[in-house]
Amino acid sequence: MPKGWRTQQTQDRFFRQAKQDGYRARSAYKLLEIDERFRLLRPGITVLDLGAAPGSWSQVVAQRAPKCKIVAVDLLAMQPIPGVEFIRGDMTKPECIAQIQAALLGGAHLVLCDAAPNTTGIALVDHAGSIRLGVAALRIALQFLKEGGAFVVKIFQGEDLNQFVKLTKQYFQTVQVFRPQASRQESTEHFVIGLRLRDRASIAAMPIGEEWG
User: Fold this and answer.
1) Residues that are catalytic
2) Which CATH superfamily groups domain 28-198?
3) CA angle (19 as vertex; 8, 126 as ends), nearest 5
4) Quick one: average pLDDT of 11-15?
């Protein structure tokens, strides 16, 4: 972990620290803090990074999980990262799901999603958009995660956050909501962390967020 990242006193310092440490965005420190708390990254795992651009989370994974396989997905273009396979596409579309399936082969140990909707500044609208993305990411996680795998997804604070957590608890043995110190003070983002995916037989018949479409 980069020396001193956790001691920064202002939000702007995370941006400057990212430049110094060679990360593409300050969001790297969110994943560093999440991994420090939940110990998700380890050598040799397969990781699916949804909403990956500009690539700071994939950078962290590549550094902290040697010999891992990383598949990154985003609507936007992303500059190459050594060891990262990038898929440019919409993770909610079947053609993108097919590309993910081909890239992952045997599945993933960890699914990350730092994706956010195009924000409007209207809290209810932005929250609803993040819930839709979160449900889409959860569906992908349930399709590709190996038994015992983990899931991390960003959700904006709002009336449906607790319901999303309740939904996630159907599929993971442990679910926590975590807000990293590196999140901007004005941001309403929280991260829902699902640990230890239940055995696939027990979740096969469960609906996945049908109430959100």
Assistant:
1) 154
2) Vaccinia Virus protein VP39 (3.40.50.150)
3) 75
4) 71
Residue 160 C-alpha from the chain's centroid: 18
Question: Each residue of 30-42: pLDDT tens digit?
Answer: 999 999 999 999 9
CA distance 52 to 163: 25
Torsion of CA 176, 181, 186, 192, to 10 degrees: -20
Domain map (residue ranges) of the chain: 28-198
CA atoms of 115 and 47, how far apart (whole Å): 15
DSSP secondary structure letters along 106-144 = S-EEEEEE-------S-HHHHHHHHHHHHHHHHHHHHHH
Question: Distance between CA 200 and CA 158 in Å, rounded?
Answer: 30
115's tokens = 């994706």
- pLDDT tens by residue, 49-104: 999 999 999 999 999 999 999 999 999 999 999 999 999 999 999 999 999 999 99
pTM for the predicted model, two decimal places: 0.89
